[in-house]
């Protein structure tokens, strides 16, 4: 028997209806919250986390839009996602960049002791979801990793599809493409 882990990537206000929000991101909130409510295993939740010096960082110079500044409303999880997590066995991981080595290390250590399947959902498919999926693949190459496309959104629909194809090519299973 294998343990199933759900990984929710950056379902934060700034990516949904804040400074970097999109209608596609807003459209996945309820589906993602429902996925969390139905899930009975261990959950990891990442938080894109920046400081007030964000615009002076390499990322800030390339994407000069302040977002996910620690402690702000935009940094916080979306309320519906937060409510779905109530009473669940979850751990939040703050990440300073697109992918989280800490997340990959922790899950690979769990995987080392037993068979683990990891499923990812969240934002943005083409930046942080793909980065974390590929890190997991590098840290635990034998682990089954899948991404629920119906609970992900990219910066644009086109870049979302390109990221899904990239992950597919790297032997990451893509599910839920019809949004169901």
Number of strands: 6
Unreliable residue runs: none
- Name the strands of the widest sheet in spatial order: 3-2-1-4-5-6
Total of DSSP H or I helical runs spanning 4+ residues:
7
Shape: globular
Q: What fraction strand?
A: 15-25%
Distance between the termini: 26 Å
Classify the secondary structure makeup into a structural class: alpha/beta
Average pLDDT level: 95
**Radius of gyration over C-alpha positions, nearest whole angstrom:** 15 Å
Query: What is the chain-wise order of helices and strands?
Result: EHHEHHEHEHEHE
Classify the helix fraction into a percent range. Answer: 40-55%
Write the topology of this structure.
Blueprint: E1 3-9, H1 13-16, H2 23-38, E2 42-48, H3 58-62, H4 79-85, E3 90-95, H5 101-113, E4 116-123, H6 125-139, E5 144-153, H7 157-169, E6 173-175
Parallel strand pairs: 1-2, 1-4, 2-3, 4-5, 5-6
Helix pairs in contact: 2-4, 5-6, 6-7
């Amino acid at each position: 028997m294998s343990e199933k882990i759900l990984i929710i990537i950056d379902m934060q206000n700034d990516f949904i209806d804040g400074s970097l929000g999109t209608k596609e991101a807003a459209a996945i909130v309820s589906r993602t919250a429902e996925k969390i409510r139905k899930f009975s295993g261990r959950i990891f939740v990442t938080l894109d986390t920046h400081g007030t010096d964000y615009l002076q960082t390499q990322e800030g110079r390339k994407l000069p839009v302040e977002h996910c500044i620690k402690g702000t409303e935009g940094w916080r999880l979306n309320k519906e996602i937060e409510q779905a997590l109530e009473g669940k066995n979850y751990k939040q991981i703050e990440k300073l960049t697109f992918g989280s080595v800490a997340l990959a290390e922790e899950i690979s250590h769990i995987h080392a002791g037993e068979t683990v399947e990891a499923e990812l959902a969240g934002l943005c498919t083409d930046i942080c979801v793909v980065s974390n999926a590929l890190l997991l693949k590098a840290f635990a190459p034998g682990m089954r990793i899948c991404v629920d496309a119906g609970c992900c959104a990219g910066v644009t629909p086109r870049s979302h599809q390109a990221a899904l194809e990239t992950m597919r090519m790297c032997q990451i299973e893509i599910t839920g493409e019809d949004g169901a």
